Amino acid sequence: MIRLIDSLSYGNRLRGMSPMWKCGFAAALFMLSYGSHPPVQAAIFAWMIVWVVRYARIPLKAHLVMLGTACLFFIASLPALLFEIQPGSAAAPGSSVFVLWSRPYGSVYVTETGLHTAAALFMRAAACLSAVSFVMFTTPVAELFQVMKRLRVPALALELMMITYRFLFILTETAHDLYTAQRARGGHNGFRGRLNDTALLIVRLFAKTMHRYKGLSHGLVSRGFTEEIRPAPYRAGAVPVRYRLESGIGVAILLLLECWLRWRGIE
């Protein structure tokens, strides 16, 4: 998935636009998504799909797969949001209750409040993810590092992020090679075999990754590394007037809608 996102970020139609403008636009929508009402969040989610799929020409399937993968973390938290446990023989409190399991020593039920909370959190997460996906699909990571440097991010944190991002590709490549070699030798057959081969793969993956890290360190020293990794110079591309107008008008409309919802007292 990380290779797909990296390749799409370099080949989209918004690639040449200013990365600072794209990050600022996404940050404004992210903050608005976090504190707005569900109708505004739904509008942001739909609007970001237009920007990513139509303007940047990112395949809809890749965009939905990324959003769906991120939503798995939200799905993992649903049981804590939806299910309530009532010990003993007392009836479940409240009138709007869906009883899932009931026994003399306890019951499991879902309340209407839990459903509303889960739905509200889902809309907030979807809107925030759509704003983040706009930056992910339209701005290469190298340009994100340039933006962070202009925003005065500490050099140590920036270098750690650069090295970590570099080693993500090394880690996935090494894991794929080891897994292919194990499969070619008849590994990963049966449940017990998969457990043993996976444990062996993790051990060898750590050893090979450390070996690649030492090679990278020696390569940096041989090229005159002076304890500072400098990203490429920042280059601000032009932003078409149409996109500037659409983004400004769109954010203004969303803010007006949010103000109207708050004025009406709509939850």
From TrEMBL:
The chain crosses the membrane at residues 58-83, 118-139. It is a multi-pass membrane protein. InterPro entries: ABC/ECF_trnsptr_transmembrane, Cobalt_transport_CbiQ, ECF_CbiQ. Keywords: Cell membrane, Membrane, Transmembrane, Transmembrane helix. GO terms for cellular component: ATP-binding cassette (ABC) transporter complex. One of its GO terms (biological process) is cobalt ion transport. It is found in: Cell membrane. Its main location: membrane. NCBIfam families: ECF_T_CbiQ. This is Cobalt/nickel transport system permease protein. It comes from Paenibacillus tianmuensis.
